[in-house]
Amino acid sequence: MKAAVITFPGSNRDGDVAQALRQAGATVVHSWHGDTELPKGTDLVVLPGGFSYGDYLRTGAIAGRAHIMDATRAHAARGGYVLGICNGFQIACEAGLLPGILVRNADLKFVCKRQHLKVERNDTPYTRAYAKGQTIDVCIAHGEGNYIADTETLARLEGEGLVAFRYADAEGRVTPEANPNGSLNNIAGIYSPGFNVLGLMPHPENLIDSLVGGTDGRGLFESLVGAKRAA
Amino acid sequence: MRCLARLGTLCRLNPFRRTVRNPEPVIPNDIKITPQLVAEHGLKPDEYQRFLHLIGREPTITELGIVSAMWNEHCSYKSSKIHLKTLPTKAPWVIQGPGENAGVIDIGDGIAIVFKMESHNHPSYIEPYQGATTGVGGILRDVFTMGARPIAVLDALRFGDPDHPKTRHLVSGVVAGIGGYGNSFGVPNVGGATGFHTRYDGNILVNAMAVGIARADEIFYAKATGVGKAIVYLGSKTGRDGIHGATMASAEFDDRSEEKRPTVQVGDPFAEKLLLEACLEIMAAGHVDAIQDMGAAGLTCSAVEMGAKGDLGVELDLDKVPCREEGMSAYEMMLSESQERMLMVIKPGHEDAAEAIFKKWGLDFAVIGHTTDTLRFVIKHQGEVMADLPIKELGDEAPEYDRPWIETAPQQRIAAESVTPPCGNAEALKKLIGSPDLSSKRWIYEQYDTLILGNSVVTPGGDAGVIRIEEGPKGLAMTADVTPRYCEADPFEGGKQAVAEAWRNLTAVGATPLAITDNLNFGNPEKPEVMGQFVGAVRGIGEACKALDFPVVSGNVSLYNETNGISILPTPTIGGVGVLADVTKHATIAFKAAGEAILLIGETQGWLGQSAYLATVCGREEGAPPPVDLAIERRNGDFVRGLITAGRVTACHDLSDGGLAVALTEMAMAKGIGAAIEALPAGPAHAALFGEDQARYLVTVPAAQAEAVIGEAKAAGVPALAIGRTGGASLALPGEPALALAELRKIHEDWLPSYMAGKTA
Known about the structure:
The complex is a heterodimer.
Chain A: E1 2-7, H1 14-23, E2 27-32, E3 44-47, H2 67-77, E4 81-85, H3 87-94, E5 101-103, E6 111-119, E7 135-142, E8 146-148, H4 151-159, E9 163-168, E10 187-191, E11 197-200, H5 218-230
Parallel strand pairs in A: 1-2, 1-3, 3-4, 4-11
Antiparallel strand pairs in A: 5-8, 6-7, 6-9, 9-10, 10-11
Chain B: H1 2-13, H2 35-40, H3 45-55, H4 61-71, H5 73-76, H6 81-84, E1 94-96, E2 103-106, E3 111-119, H7 121-126, H8 128-145, E4 149-159, H9 167-185, E5 189-196, E6 205-215, E7 230-235, H10 245-248, H11 269-284, E8 288-293, H12 298-309, E9 313-317, H13 330-335, E10 341-346, H14 351-360, E11 364-372, E12 376-381, E13 384-390, H15 391-396, H16 425-433, H17 442-445, E14 456-458, E15 465-468, E16 475-481, H18 484-489, H19 491-508, E17 512-521, H20 528-548, E18 552-558, E19 562-563, E20 566-567, E21 571-580, E22 597-601, H21 612-617, H22 630-645, E23 651-654, H23 659-671, E24 675-677, H24 685-690, E25 697-701, H25 706-715, E26 720-726, E27 730-732, E28 739-740, H26 741-756
Parallel strand pairs in B: 4-5, 9-12, 17-18, 24-27
Antiparallel strand pairs in B: 1-2, 2-3, 3-6, 4-6, 7-10, 7-11, 8-10, 9-11, 12-13, 14-15, 15-16, 16-21, 17-21, 19-20, 22-25, 22-26, 23-25, 24-26, 27-28
Helix pairs in contact in B: 8-9, 8-11, 9-11, 11-14, 19-20, 19-22
């Protein structure tokens, strides 16, 4: 698995996700937002967390139009994997890779804390290391993670099983109290129709070590590396 | 300040029109320097005379601005210097003590830790969001200027009475600002402290600490070397923001302080993140000879320091300075405190390669001057010399005062027996854990990214933050602490206690304390009582640092924290750093399992003077604070650390505000495992539970180990008492009804969010 981690001006979890990918056995190459081509042999493009362009315009709006995003869209159109985490999810939405948009958290405050997620399905390249319906304990760190989409889009996401993760409590119950940011249907992450693009607000890359909070984030990266091997 | 704003306009409207061939000893000046103008620049008449004597002529307005920037309290430390010199600053592991952008210590394996704490008090009161962001930005820049990548920040905050009409707004703005900057920059916040007291009603404190990591042999300094080298301006453009910021921070507030809002700078964490990456890249590539960030007093202070430290002159051409606004005068450019800017001396022949890196990151890069052999600080603008000053004297000849001071009168010791409990101990405990000072600060730290970089082993809510160093096995522990009411009652003991508390916090997670940074926040030093507080606290800090081998490697002094004659509580915040040889062998405060023995380490006399119990439950801020016996502190701490590093304790918490009862409650609430307390130290129960005797810890050990650990403690001369067992979902204190943890947690967690939502006072 060769993963290209894109660094935009203001990306700040590019190192964290690279570490998680390497730990899972992937080869990581760093790419620059101004590049027009992805490194040869790229299997996975990662849009990392951070504050691209300071989030001074809409989050992800400028980065979504960076040179490298043309190559990324082409890669996704060929069925290649694209993983957008946090600011990367926002960029993926702005770049048209995923539907909907992320707006300010309902309470208008940045929030960083541990957060449980319910894994909706485990038959995707990103989740095969988890059990269907499993509750995982990862973390969130965002000010604009409130996922919204129009009614039609939401119905399609739900109908086609494109919701990847939902905010849940420790027992896996998807409740309003467990929703940290006001996202519709507690949505924490969604897939593209081909399941090759995943965008999610939480940070599995920071939960890969028992010394540092736990290992529930590892499964996502191990799934991806395994998906490549199986392919 | 309105006058200064007007002056700025004047400078813009009257650009100096002189052609200079050779810098003459006398520079003609269009603006007459009047006594009023001198006073508006914060210079006392005798200080101005000193300056006149130094240059032998009347200064230009630009020169007056430069000297006011260099000689104000904030930049010159003129009131504090002679006392700061007494602090211990050396140890075998200290690479760089005070005097550089930040202190540097060696933690072995070729790794250096670079750290410093700095205040941004005055601006944060006037404009809380921007004041706090630029406080964080400034301290981060101090750390990466030395070649270190920031790995953690901490914040120590003091606000006024919760009932004060401005407090809620200030808390909201400051917290959002600290988070807004650190989160975007991408560094975890690992700890800090927040307190409330009416004496901060007119002057809040925002102390931010940054910690970075570097190779021990790749530290960068401000000292320029060699004549004729290019001085390069990097980062954001210069605007009119922050002019006279350092002067503002060197004066008292009055009812018109809000008018100073234009002096507050605006932070841009995105620019800082780019600046960080570009600076580290340019340093790693070997292009940099010297580097200095533009902080207080901006271009003036940074350029003078680079030259003066290297025994070199500096000549700057302001026409080359990247400006955000048109028509800026030399005066404005030299005093602007626009953020996210750096000054570098680039190695000859490396200019193009260095520029390419900055262009890649989309940042300004401009050669704006060069080093000279004249020892003069020469400023040119539009072909004319605007300033020509002796560079070393600007720093070295700054006034230095031995201000008169009077020792703070000692207070009486309050005997535990003389304090009649106004309520039962269970009731008192609930009051304490739900009080502004001791309630949970989750509302604050959940607005900070505490997990980025993936090395946060212990996050806020414990005794100290712990970060894994790279892939391990080493770890770094960090804390920021002080107990202002102790310092108010007895500055010397309070200063000692602040250092001991920081040392204890680090010890309680299993770290070996190595060094501190001090952020000394006081009132007006021209008042002998306030100066006496300062002198007493510095003496106390010095004594504790010596006894604990815990030198001061960096720091900051913030004076004039005073409004309409009311000064803050003396608040010498201590930021401590310690190392864990094996980060997997650290302790946290949470009880881990039921049925374990709870041991109280250290002697309990039931000291209630200046305790949180006396203040919060009895409504009395009285008496002498608990004294710190530094030999005992060290003995008890070394014993506890030995237990932790040997992997023999399952939890550890140091005892501080609220004493034994509050510490127990925090340990129980952390994971929801209760405790039954069967034995208390001798004396009245309320004093045993809430007394704030120093040098104490609570640890838990498997029940079968308790006897052995107590035996070892005895052998080491350390008092140790088994006080009860962990387990259940409640906390049972002797003679009191059991308190459900769910109820305690609700009380503890609810105060701050309710307050911020406007539901409580």
